Amino acid sequence: MFAVNEKKVIAVIVEGPSDEAALGSILKEYFSSAEIQFVVVHGDITTKDYTSTDNILSKINNLIESVKQKYGYKREDFLKIIHIVDMDGAFCDDAIVEKDVEGVRYYLNRIETKYPDYLIRKHTQKAEILSKLYSSGKINGVSYRIYFNSCNLEHVLFNELKDFTDDEKADMADDFAEKYEGKVEDFVEFISQDDLIAPGTFKQTWQFIEKEKHSLERFTNMHLIFK
Prior knowledge:
Blueprint: E1 9-14, H1 17-30, E2 35-40, H2 56-71, E3 78-86, E4 96-98, E5 104-106, E6 111-113, H3 116-134, E7 138-139, E8 142-150, H4 153-158, H5 166-179, H6 184-191, H7 202-209, E9 219-220
Protein name: DUF4276 domain-containing protein
Organism: Blautia argi
């Protein structure tokens, strides 16, 4: 049985459950006049196989369609789509170093991997798709904005750049949510610190993160969600 939609819907697309855990209560409090629905991708949609600039908008629209079908929403019920992504050093190909390590290791000045050519291909894919997404403005008629955390959410929220386990991420996210429960203004103040925000307008923040090693360094434009 579908709910009667008295409130407009804001869809929030995130990479993992810890993102929802950390930010969910904050966004629900701030946008209390709207219905917040999280869409957890369980990975990075921009680097998935068979994802390209040609089909990324339809893939995001499919995520929104799944929310519509689950809750019985219509397109006109949606106020906007907020998409939050990790940068993962996507614009730092010149910082990739071949090293015999497990997975990918991120540092402020370099990225270590056993397979640099593969990572460069994924970075190229991600960079092209992100450029398409931040230039889009709307998806299927619904307002759309994509926001970033560099190098990732944990780096921005906790100022630690390391490979956390899923359990560690979950514990950190729960602690963070508890810290800011009922204190959304404190969170907005935290996320708006001068040394944390990418400067300028929405488009300028993306132009900033594309340069130098900014997509490895600790920056975000999530403060613009609250403007």
